[in-house]
Amino acid sequence: MKFTNGFKKTLFLATVLVGMSSCSHGPAIQDYPDTANPIDEVKKLDSDITMASQNQIDVLSPYNFSFAQESLKDAKTSLDKQQNSKETLHSVATSRAYLVRANEFAKLSTVNLEEVVIARKQAIASGANNFFPADLQKTDNSLKEVTSDIEKNELKSAKANRSTLQLKYLDLELQSIKTTMLGQARTTIAQAIKEGAKDFAPRSLAIAEKKLKDTDAFITANRHDSGQIFISSNNSRLSADHLLKITRDSKAGKKTSSEETALKMENEQNKAADKQIQLNVKTNQLENKQNQLDIKQGQLIKSKNTLDSERAFNERYEIARAAFIENEAEVYKKGNTLTIRLRGLEFPVAQAVLKGSNFPLLAKVQKVMKSFGNSSVIVEGHTDSMGGKAMNNRLSIARATAVKEYFISNADDNLINIEAVGYGYQKPLASNKTSKGRAQNRRVDVLIQPVN
């Protein structure tokens, strides 16, 4: 397998080198058509070159990338001076050609300097460009010398300098991590020494310096263990803060033994703080117990209210059942919804006009609705399957609306929230193939749901 991978890599390098050597005097330039917009093309090119720089193309193919940048600069100058758009587009095309070639050489550089490329990326991610910009630039210049040789199809330099460059970037990464994680502790310890820590708090100084040294050593050995590094560096920072505090407290005492006094005072303060914390914990525990009792009390009240509501609903359900005889309506309940199926409600064929004979039945329904108090009511219209779907949908809605309007016109001041819907023949109760079944399916249902 190692032989196969090595052979593939060699074949890839050979293919790339052959392709690039054929254009050693410069890449082929494909000019834009006259219809191209020079402003848009310059913007796109500027964005692509910025992205290429973020992808390290500027150091992996410095010669070609610099030509791409220069040609972009020429295009911007031409655009600012409002010169011939053809010249602007030619500069863009030239930059594009060199950028494409830079990307090709960058791939070749990455193959030969893979470990270096990864190390550089990690160094930058760790903040080397902010903490050590001069050192990073110096190392980048060394890298550019090597990648410039690669652009000339000379690969010996890459092999000779690969390890050295990788180590330089790795060192920048390590120092950047230490600066980030230990910088505050170092600064605080330096300030404490400046204020006399060696004289006034030597023991605290030794402790802080040891923790800093231990954390520094841990980072050296485990630079990518971010979780443990954070914990260790935070402890170093706290130790440094403690050192500065003891230095100042001890210095204020103006005695040689005042560090011991300051530490004792701090210990007493910590004990008092611990007692307060314990008291707060007990207070919180009592509050939590009270909250749990309140929650249980609320649950009991809610359960009682639910039982009361269910009991009241069942009582009204029984009253509603008794209000209608068999050929007038059937009353059902499901959950907290009461359904009154109006068997005695009849409409003229294909019409939605209420007959006078229907009013006594509807008055009974309205009386039941009123007994439920604040409720939400849905009047559902249903038909059989005779006739078209659209016609039956319109008819079912019209019949439900007629019943709804009756309820509204005969309601007292406490109007109930009423909605009318029509389902056509979508929800049959029986088969539409028999006259008896179709008669069952032609119906109006009134659904009553109490609102808490």
Write structural notes for this entry.
Mean pLDDT is 86; it is low at 1-23. The chain is built from 16 helices and five strands. Strand 3, helix 15 and strand 4 form a beta-alpha-beta unit. It is an alpha+beta fold and 452 residues long. A five-stranded mixed β-sheet has the order 1-2-5-3-4.
Provide the spatial order of strands within the biggest beta sheet: 1-2-5-3-4
Question: What portion of residues is helical?
Answer: over 70%
Radius of gyration: 43 Å
Q: Would you identify the CATH architecture of the domain at 324-450?
A: 2-Layer Sandwich
The level-1 CATH class of the domain at 324-450: Alpha Beta
According to CATH, the fold-level topology of the domain at 324-450 is: 60s Ribosomal Protein L30, Chain: A
State mean pLDDT (0 to 100 scale).
86
